[in-house]
Design brief:
Strand content: 15-25%
CATH superfamily of the largest domain: P-loop containing nucleotide triphosphate hydrolases
CATH architecture of the largest domain: 3-Layer(aba) Sandwich
CATH class of the largest domain: Alpha Beta
Largest sheet: 6 strands, mixed
Number of domains: 2
Radius of gyration: 24 Å
Distance between the termini: 57 Å
Helix content: 25-40%
Number of strands: 22
Structural class: alpha/beta
Number of helices: 18
Length: about 500
């Protein structure tokens, strides 16, 4: 058992943790949830030896301990698996298992055979069917997570902290990781599960702990609460799940797609979209919707079919051409495709529109800053200095900066791929409001999402894809989770 007692932590004048006390037991999966900025990462970084608390104590099995470094925490049996996985793609699994603590023979050379044998032993212990000689680059995201988990087990971790482990995983991959977590629980390993996905908390966790504004505001058994309860604990008020309404004024057709076909990802796609309309695309991950809109935006190839913008056929050969034609595209996986980590907030928010501020290749920084400040007001972006690194912002504010980047170009058509991925429930509501306001102003909006509730809440209608084709359309009374899932798994809408 680990107890963190009365933990406080400040960074300068910012008090991040305020007298927080939590308990973690061996052999249980406990959720640590809260909005971005609530203090979750700081609390876990203290447990993981990354930060040192200002006051409070950590007690393991009745004995007070101090963690000054990550090695101290790991030596005490605590492993931290971060969102950014610490694996090297160009090495085989068994070498990744021993990164930083490689086994050597008597001559000081790497003992590859022994490392491979010990990796096999761990895999057999927890029933994992993986070839230890496989290259990490050839693994899907869930198996990379599993390799990180196995490495923690090899280091005899009794508590594993998992920070947003399912953010980039497909549904089958999530099930695979959950099965692994259940196996660890059976072996007496405790897991701290950090996630914004409350339905996953309900599915996999036994106990919950909620942080809000640096304080522990709720804890208890998951079986005693609903997702609505957890959302209310996180934000401090009820969070509506009803369909959002707006003043609709549907205008002329902006986009028409006819029989669009890709060499492998999608086939015979036809649909239209008008000014002021919010059109959803949903289904199961891997259904081809992201590839479809990457192709429409000029980032992927098209085998056959036509794209018409405002009634005129276009051949989109590049993303630059798509931008000039009035399209914007907010990509999925913000950390990989949306932000540039080596640039600051202002640079990230304006990179698409640099040509607008340039005279003979020299950027007018006053214009650049003024446009961003205007976007800041409209989108409610929270930051301290525009020259700060983009990475210090919360997930919701990072997503707003990426959105600002495209809105600065004043697109007629905006494609949003997983617009609320990795953001908390409060930031989700803010992004939904922004999407509705854009549609009210006449923009044509496409929302790609695997979350049926999200599609139902904000879209006027939705097309459901199945194995690269449009399986059906839902709107009005047919726009339910049941009907969406039926279409997404290859079924048909009920007649009438």
């Amino acid at each position: 058992m680990i107890k963190m007692n009365n933990i406080t932590k400040s960074f300068g004048t910012n008090e991040v943790l305020k007298d927080v006390s939590i308990t973690i037991n061996d052999g249980e999966i406990a959720a640590l949830i809260g909005e971005n900025g609530a203090g979750k990462s700081t609390l876990m970084n203290i447990l993981g030896g990354v930060h040192y608390m200002d006051s409070g104590s950590i007690v393991i099995d009745g004995k007070k301990v101090e963690f000054r470094t990550p090695a101290d925490s790991l030596n005490a049996g605590i492993a931290f698996i971060h969102q950014e996985l610490n694996l090297i793609n160009d090495l085989p699994i068994y070498e990744n298992m021993f990164l930083g603590r490689e086994l050597k023979d008597k001559r000081g050379r790497l003992d590859l055979a022994r490392m491979e044998a010990e990796t096999v032993e761990i895999f057999q212990k927890i029933n994992i069917d993986l070839d230890p000689r496989a290259m990490v680059r050839d693994l899907d995201a869930s198996y990379k997570q599993i390799v990180e988990i196995c490495r923690a087990i090899m280091m005899e971790a009794s508590i594993i902290i998992m920070d947003e482990p399912t953010t980039s995983l497909t549904e089958p991959e999530i099930k695979r990781v959950f099965k692994m977590m259940e196996t660890l629980k059976e072996h007496g390993v405790g897991i701290i599960f950090i996630s914004h996905k409350l339905n996953e908390v309900m599915e996999i966790c036994e106990r919950y702990m909620v942080l809000r504004d640096g304080k522990l505001v709720a804890e208890g058994q998951v079986s005693d609460v609903t997702t609505d309860d957890l959302a209310r604990f996180m934000v401090g008020h009820d969070v509506s799940t009803d369909k959002l309404t707006r003043a609709k004024s549907i205008g002329s057709e902006i986009l028409r797609v006819e029989n669009l076909t890709h060499p492998s990802a999608f086939r015979n796609i036809s649909f239209s979209l008008k000014e002021g309309e919010i059109l959803g695309f949903t289904g199961l991950l891997g259904d081809g919707r992201s590839e479809l809109f990457q192709a429409i935006f000029g980032a992927d190839q098209i085998q056959s079919g036509r794209i018409l913008l405002s009634g005129e056929e276009v051949k989109v050969q590049s993303t630059e051409q798509a931008l000039n034609l009035g399209m914007g595209y907010l990509p999925r996986n913000r950390k990989e495709n949306g932000i540039i980590k080596d640039m600051n907030i202002l640079e990230n928010a304006s990179i698409v529109t640099w040509p607008l501020f340039a005279t003979r290749g020299v950027i007018d920084h006053n214009k650049q800053r003024d446009l961003f400040l205007d976007q800041t007001d409209k989108l409610g972006i929270k930051y301290q200095r525009i020259t700060d690194s983009i990475t210090i912002l919360s997930g919701g504010n990072q997503q707003k900066v990426v959105l600002a980047k495209w809105l600065a170009a004043h697109p007629k058509l905006l494609i949003l791929d997983n617009p609320t991925q990795g953001v908390d429930v409060g930031a989700k509501e803010e992004i939904y409001d922004i999407i509705l306001q854009l549609a009210e102003a006449g923009m044509a909006v496409v929302v790609l999402s695997s979350e049926a509730q999200e599609i139902i809440r904000i879209c006027d209608r939705a097309l459901v894809m199945y194995q690269g084709e449009i399986q059906g359309e839902v709107s009005g009374s047919t726009m339910t989770e049941h009907e969406i899932m039926k279409l997404a798994t290859g079924g048909m809408l009920d007649a009438g």
